[in-house]
Structure formats: C-alpha cells, structure tokens
Amino acid sequence: MRFKRKTIQQPYFNPGRRQFVQGLALGGAVASLGLGVSSSLFAANNKSMAKGPNTLTGTHFDLAISPLLVNFTGQERYATAVNGSVPAPTLRWKEGETVTLNVTNQLAEDTSIHWHGIILPSAMDGVPNISNGFKGIKPGESFQYRFKLEQSGTYWYHSHSGFQEQKGHYGAIVVDPIEPYPFSFDRDYVVMLSDWSDENPNNIYAKLKKLSHYYNFRERTMSDLTHEISEKGVEQVWNERGMWNEMRMSDRDISDVTGYTYTFLMNGQTPAEGWTGLFKRGEKVLLRFINAAAMTFFDVRIPGLKMTVVATDGQYVQPVSIDEFRIGVAETYDVIVEPKDDSAYSIFAQTIDRSGYARGTLTPDLGLTADVPKMDAGPILTHTDMGMGMSHMNHGAPGGMGMDHSQHDMKTMPAMDHSQHDMKTMPTMDHSQHDMKTMPMMDHSQHDMKTMPNMVTDQQTSKPAIGSGKAGYGSSTPITHPKTEYGPHIDMRADGAQYRLDDPGVGLRNNGRKVLTYADLFNLNTTPDPREPQREIQLHLTGNMSRYMWSVDGVKFADAEPLQFKYGERLRITLVNDTMMNHPIHLHGMWSDLETGDGRYIPRKHTVVVQPGAKISYLVTADAKGGWAYHCHLLYHMLGMFRTVIVS
Amino acid sequence: MYKRIAGIILGATMLNNAQAGMADDPILTKVMINELEVRNTDGPDPIVWDAQMWIGQDLNKLWIKTEGEYVDDELEEAELQALYSRAIAPYWDLQIGWRHDFRPKPSRDWLVLGLEGLAPYFFEIDASLFIGESGQVSASLEAEYEIMLTQQWVLSPEIALTAYSKNDEEYEIGSGLSNMDLGIRLRYEIKREFAPYIGVNWSKKFGQTADYAREHDEDTSDVQVVAGVRIWF
C-alpha cells in the first residue's frame, strides 16, 4: 500500500516577506500508510506528528486517500487520511499557477476532494453527481484535478463523500499571492481546528435521529430552576419559561454534537498535547485559522494579545483589531498578532457550547507554557435567537410565538447597555426610560443602530441603511414563509427575523471583550462587481430539531429541484434562519458577497453563518457555468439542508 | 399505506444503522424498554414491563408496543400492539393498528387509534382508543414528565388512566374510569441508553371495576415499591 511521494518537500519561502519561515508545521505522519499499521508503529508515529501536518508545495501533487489507525483518545480507531496524515497535508500553492493533483482512492468506498473556496470549473469542484461529469472516485481508482489558481488566501480541502470529513479527511490550502501581501508578517502558521469522535459518524447521525439531545449534557436542571426562582420569584420564572415550554424547545440547545463524544483538535493535536508555534519577541505572526470541524463552532482568543483580522475566507478585509472571534464551520480567518515580550500565549478555541476546547501555544521558547483559560459559562439562547425581533414584539403575533414579555426581567436581557451607541441616529427612541414594551428584545450590547428597520439613512455617512435594498445594504423584501414550511417536518418559523450583523452571537454578548462581528467586515478593495442585484431569492433554513430533520424552505435535498442561476446575473440571496441553530451556508463555485453595510467595500466569503432566528443576505455574481453544491456545512445537517445550483 | 408499511418492513430487513450512508432519512430502528421492573407487593412480586420499538423513517414508522406482567412463574397480563405511525404535526404522531391481548385469557383483539407525542410544557403523551370485537371501547391516556435533577439523575412522574364503555364481568372490567396508575421513578443515566431506577407506583381501581375486585377479595388500591432498569438502543 505504500506509495512514493513525488512532491518536492521544500521549506516554504514567503515571497512577500524577507524572512524564511517554516514554523513547526513540518514533520508529519508519513510513515504509516494504508491498512495494517501496527499500534506500536503508530504510537511512535503519533509523537512525530505532534506539530501538525506536513506542508506540500509545488504544482504537481499525488494524494492518496487511505485508512489510518489513529489514537486521539486512548482508543485506536481508523481515520480517513490523506498521504497517511490526519489532518491531511497542507497544500501551499501560488496564485496564477496551474496545479495538478492526482488523487488515488485506497479506501473501500467512494471518495472525493472538494477544494473549499477555490474558484475553478465545476468539473474540478469534486462534489459527486453535482460537479459537471464527476461521479466520485471509486475504490482503487484515481482522478486528476487540474485548475488554475485565480486567487490567493487561506482555504481548505475535504471529502465531499459520506461522512469522511468527520473521520479526518480535511487539510489546509494556502495560496500565496502574486502581488505582495498588503500586510507584513514574520511568521506564518496554519491553525486548523477540527472535531474528532471515536464513534462511527453513521451512529452519531442515528443517535441524533433517535434522541436529538443525546449529546447535550448542559440541559436545564432543577437546581437552575430553584436558583432562578430564588432570584426572581416563581411568577417571573414561570413567565420566562413560558415560550420555551410552549414551543417544547430548550434554551440550552447550542450544539447537536458536543465534547461528550468529540475531542477538539488544533492542527491535529488534542488539548492534552496542544499545538505549538514559535515566535521571537516583536515579530508579527500570521495565524491562518480554518474551521475544519464537522459540527463545531469555535470561539477563539489569545489572552494577552490583540488580534488584527486581515482576511476571511481567503479574501482580504480592512484590518480590524479584536480580542475574540467566532469561527463557523468551514470559515477561515487570518489574523496577525504581535507579541511584545518573551511570554508564552495560549491560543484558546472553546466550542460554542463550552463543552470543550482546542488549544495551542505561541511561545518564544519550547520550555515555556501558558495558562489555559477557563471556559466561559455555557450560553443560553434568548428570544432574539428565536427570531423574535423588533417587528414582532406585539403580543399575539402570528406564528404562535407571540408571548407576553411585559414582565421580563432586565437581567435576562443582557443587552440593555446602550452606552456604546450613537443615539443621534435614533432620534425617536427614548432610551432613558428603557421602555420594554416598545423594544423588549433588542440586544443592544454591540448593536449598531444602522440595523434598526425604520432607519432610512445613517445620518453620519449618508449611506443607505441595512435593509434598504441597495447593493451592500441588504434586502428590503418582507419575509414570507413558503407553504412548504408548514407541517410535521418544521418546528419553528422566525417571523421576526432581522439582520443581526453586529450581534456577536449567543455566548459572546457583553463578555467584556471586543468580539468580531460581520458588521466589522469590509473588503480591503472596492467591490468587484458593483452592480445592483437584478433579482432576489429568499431561502429559509428550516428543520425539526427533535425529529432531527433539516431542509431549505421545508424541502429536503432529496425532494428539491435545483436552483437556477442565469449566467452573468448579479443576484441577491437572502437567508432566513427559521431554526435555533447557527448554520454555516456554503455556496460552491461563486463568491458570497456579504452585505455588511457599505456598498463600496463588500467583503467576499465562501461560507456565511446565519445566526438562529436571524436573516442575512449576500450578492452573487453567477459567473461560473455548471452544477454547484449549496448547503449547510454542518455535516449532519447537510444531507437535507442542501441544494444544487445550476448556472446556465 | 400498506405499500408504505411494506416498504418500511422490506427496507428494515435490508438495511441497518451502520449503512445509513448519505441518505438524509435512513431507515432506523429504536428499541425502548421504558420499564422493566420488579414491584414489591404483599404477595409474590410481579415483574412488569413496558417496552416499545419502532422501525422507519422521519415521518413514517412501524411501532410495536408491549406491556405485561409476570407473576409467580406465570404470565398474568400481556398485550402487543402493532401500529402504523405517521407524523401529523411537529411533535405528534398519529398511530393506527391492532392490539392483541395474550393474557388474561381468553385473548382479545382491538383496533387501535392513537396519538403519541410531546405536548407543550414537555409532557410526553400517549393517548389511545381501542375498539374491541364485542363492541367494547376502551380509552387510555398516559402522561409522563421528566425533571432533570442533574444531567444524569432524572425524576419522572407519570400517570396512566384507563376507561371502558361497558361492563365486562369476564375480565372484571366495569364501564367508566376503571383504573389509574400513578408512579414516580428516579433513574440514574449511567449512559443515555442505560438507567437503573427505583420508584413508587400506586394503582387504584374505580367504579364497577373496583366492585368486581371486592367481590373477588382483591385490593382496589395498592402501593408498590419498584426497582428496574430503563434501556434503549
């Protein structure tokens, strides 16, 4: 089963920077390939891979997909490896070059590779039965991918077959730009986050279908209740619990699959081992964060260091300095940190539900260690997360979610701190009295008043408001639920879904740290396609949590017709999240130009997180003919929450 | 409907969980032994079971339900239901099928019309209407609530009520509300799938049913300490 690696393994030279940087990302698990690797061999091997996967450079690559015995938990399991490595080797490419990748399937089942975020012809996109002419790679067969790199940045690749991604079939891609980087850095590290389970992914999926909260061990208990009652009194707690009890939903329902089964990895290292990156005091360190998890959102911070976000999903953004960011499944963020002293720092990536974390260390010296912070308290969903936005606060609202909020305690609304807001933009609202009847549910913590629906313009900049319908400013189309969204397969419709671009999301609001939000993202360059959208598609992300069914507009993939895009058109897609989960939505083949409130600098993404009960929109230039996948990137959602897009 | 049931049965024999693959809606099987317990009584301690199983997909399933009591090496009561179950609302399944009572003898058959699901405020409900051969109609309602004391200790009170349309001396059943079971069980989920429990069960007979019991020198109400295990997979 052994094969010879033809790719030249040479240390990476960063052309945009004088210094030669290799990091510690070299030295992977190349020794054990294929089946039948003895455990002792693996144990030795595991030590050698403690610094993360190999980096391969060049234009020709031979990649072999094979089973690999791994041990992340004390139990040996077979993973799905690329060139004997989990995560797969990092591929370092150069913009403008044409890469050729021969992918050989040494598994007993079909496989594939999708180059996530790379703009390429449909036939090279690697989605079986959707990409033009591609049927997947059969066992024992090879497929040659060949495409020209039209872009630079941080991306990743993974299987688009079965649940192989959960079993380790993912790796990083870094494409160096032709033009110099618009920022400087001395070190360059990929930080790939993922989730590993010893369980068979089919069994995970079956368990979720049988008992959807199977993995949730953060459920509301009696002691939570007695605690709340002693604080607020029976009547108020009864009222607060009302909506959740009526809807038969749990406000602790954050992640479907949790640390109960997952071990969270940073560059393939468990929290016990930790990944390590070296720096010298005063150096600028570029960290390329990639969320390659199957199901896990991470909240990332490096206590003691500010991070400057310079790119997301491979595309440059106007630099923004932050303490923390949430990275949805399949997203990437490039950040620069500048440690000014000789201390070690923890890279801390706690999961959105606080059921675990991945971690690493940035250090000037391998002998130094950094404190690992405690995880934050587990998040609790609010009415905001259920799409009970401002337009819907009148009692007896349609949709069965109208509740009496008049008795809600301010303490349950973490967000009534308006101090950071520019009140000039909201002349009609009297905040001094905090009249909850007029706006009971707004989380104002980090909200920009531009999102207020009745605001026509931002008076300071004269820019159109979010929701004005102008390119870059979002949809003005009312939310309407299609007929297919009614029935036993749907448990919720967010009638009051609003843009929540500046909402850091559940668990991150008002935590005292500057948390990145989508409202902070603006393209470093001017909007590549400044046309106004010619039409708009409104799509609803739908499901039934307890039956564990997921769909778009209430229609699952198996029953859905493809979405038709007209070649050359500029269209807007508005996504309405009618569920209580975050969904990272990935459009293949074309950019998702996210409308964050400035038509001149629309940032480009390949994966867009739609917060629970929220809406969001992006513009798409349909400039790539053929069949494309369009789906939620949560692995156990995507079977149903999926569409084929055909551009013709 | 028959086609669908046939499809489910056929599919279930061909597939198992591990082969679910990328089908979003695989045919799955769930076995739930909700109660398997010994009850402490004055006489011989009965072993009581209440178990269910389904085979099917998200919205259409075949359900098997069984309940019974085994006392002193003898099967006292045993019933089996086979139901086609169809989701009719986000939290509700309509169930139609057949019930056979093996014990007490002589055995009887019923048509079943049931509604199973989760009511607001998280009450698990199983309500059924049974139509017997002799025109006897019976209704039953079971409701259960789960109180999470911790993530693993669960306290679950439950109530079960049964009523009949006519007197039936042979089975010692009177018309109207015939009996009620009130129980509370405390379980410890060692795993989600496996939880031993202890509890108390109070059974009471009403009306003509109670009269029949008195005629046979039987108790009309009984408090039992129970110990058992809850298993699903």
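The first helix of chain A runs from residue 39 to 48.
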